[in-house]
Design brief:
The complex is a heterodimer of chains A (114) and B (579). By secondary structure, chain A is an all-alpha fold. Chain A contains five helices and no strands. Chain B has 18 helices and 20 strands. In chain B, the strands form four sheets. A five-stranded parallel sheet of chain B has the order 2-1-3-4-5, with helices on both faces. Chain B has a five-stranded antiparallel sheet with strand order 6-15-14-11-12. A five-stranded antiparallel sheet of chain B has the order 7-8-9-10-13, with helices on one face. Classes of the chains: A mainly alpha (114), B alpha+beta (579).
Amino acid sequence: MTDKPHLDEEALTELQDVMEDEFDILIETYLKDSSDRISYLHDAIGSSDSDAFAKTAHSFKGSSINIGAPKLGELCLKAEEAGKDDRLDDALEMVRAIESEFQRVEQTLKRFLE
Amino acid sequence: MMENQALRILIADDSDSDRLILQTLMKRLGHRVRSTANGSEAVAVFADYQPDIVLLDVMMPVMDGITAARKIKAMAGEELVPVIFLTSLTDADALARCLDAGGDDFLTKPYNKVIIQAKLRAFNRMRQMHQTLSQQRDLIRESNRQLLDEQQLAKRVFDNIAHTGCLDADNIRHHVSPMSIFNGDILFACPRPAGGMHVMIGDFTGHGLPAAVGALPIAEIFYGMTSMGFSGSDVLREINDKLGRILPTGMFCCAAMVQADFHLNQLRIWNGGLPDALLFREGRQRERVPSRHLPLGVLGASRFDPAMEVFYTNAGDTLLLMTDGVLEAENTQAERYGEARLSAALDQANDNAAPIDTLLSAIERFTGQQSSQDDLTMVSLDMVVASDFQEAAEPMPQSALRGPAEWHCVYELRDETLAKFSPLPLLLHICMEVPGLRRRSADIYTLLSELYNNALEHGVLNLSSDLKSSPDGFSDYYAERERRLEFVNGHFIRFTLNHSMADDRGQLTIACEDSGRGFDHSAQLALDEGSPSVSHYCGRGLVLMQSLGHSLRYSECGTKAEIVYDWEYVTKQPGTGHD
């Protein structure tokens, strides 16, 4: 359905160039933040807080785009829009899609760290 | 240099990884960074950190970017601190809200190093331009304040020198704007020691300080010479000379000089470049006294004509004088008041109203509420019965016996100075040190100038009066005179003045020698007397000199002329004619 790549190699290379020694820290920070955000998304569904759901998805989207994970960013955008429209019916399914995409990104990024 | 200047950048972003990226990017670009995790923190450090540029995420916990932008812009006040929003927002409404809150631009994720660098440069340029403008505005504001202070100070100095004189006399009404010296207008009045008064009104080209600077010597000469008893013509000549020397080309003073004599019921008027003076006489149409001269400071001493027109008046007649500002007064449609409206207003005026009041209220009705641009300078002078005139003038301050009595002086001009300098004011000044000669300044001046002109034109320059025998010849004569003045090397004109006195009588001897070939003065005299139509134009000097001086003698083939002038000190008798 979506043809955005899982990882934007070019963006990542540029980031690596900019960050130099701090690239590792950046990736670790991103991975840590992202798994935190996935738990927040679950919490928001649990408490039916569509506003919190949208905001978390929004931040997740931004940092994913910046790190060079456009497909994950796109999934987050859909979640953000659902939250804004107060439609949490499909939310769990969305979060699962985000989780599986994130695992994929995480695998690849960790390879970048080596 | 300026392009790569290190900036202080304040960042607010709640996402740790985004903040890390941005912060590192900025440092790599050579800037200094302070990072915060939300709007509230950013606002808190803003005042202390004084960033050059602020980067704000839009959605943040505690305080979002839009609220933070509003607070930061308010804190920055007049200073321009660009606020750039960090966003992955794509919807137009949300972007517009960011700008409404005072945001200056956006940076979209993912960040691009090249674009970020370009935007920072652009905003830094804008910030610096704003700073320069603000500094210049402050500088201008400060200079302007200083200028106004200095003008106030200058005005106080000016008012001391150019005091109002006798403008407050019962027979004078006047209107001047409070800061008139800075619009270049002058208005003076001064009683004459021999009775009567001088009134002078004028208008300098230009405005501001240059105009005021020119006004100072005028005031000094006007008051100084008038109270020493010099005639209006003498004062005009001296002022013209002074202005010619001190004013740059293109700057001059349109002016009118009035010498009022209440004993003789006489007005002498000289108008150089001002609107027509108006003379109101009972039962008669008002008379115009148009400008017949170039403004003061234009012509050199030899070309300047200070002769004043004489008007015979009655008590109750009124003379009205004004500067251009009156005709140029504008209404809200930027129309000028003009000659036609002025005449109409005076035609419709009731006979009892003072003309100056009639005009002032007519102009006020015309211009409406524009009194702040008041450039009007007007004065009216009523002729009064001499005995009613409160002569503020003290009698001659010195008795006839004070001042120099026995003296001798020789003054010689040589070479090209003959072409460039008139010795007349100086010589007149020396003679005017004798109190008894002051009221005869016009006589003395005539004698000095006739002797000098004869010596220069007929002696040194060897010009023939025959040239002047028609009005056209006059201009040929002066053209030739100018031409020959360029070759006066090796020539001289020498004045020898001798004065002695006994009791209240004195004798002034003026001898004038020149280096010319001499001239046949007897032929000249015969010509003058023989053909009255010719003598109207030229040569009348000799006859005039003979009638003024008690004896005129030529010697050394006409290269030396000597005049003996006897005078007697007469105590002023109020109510009788003099001069």
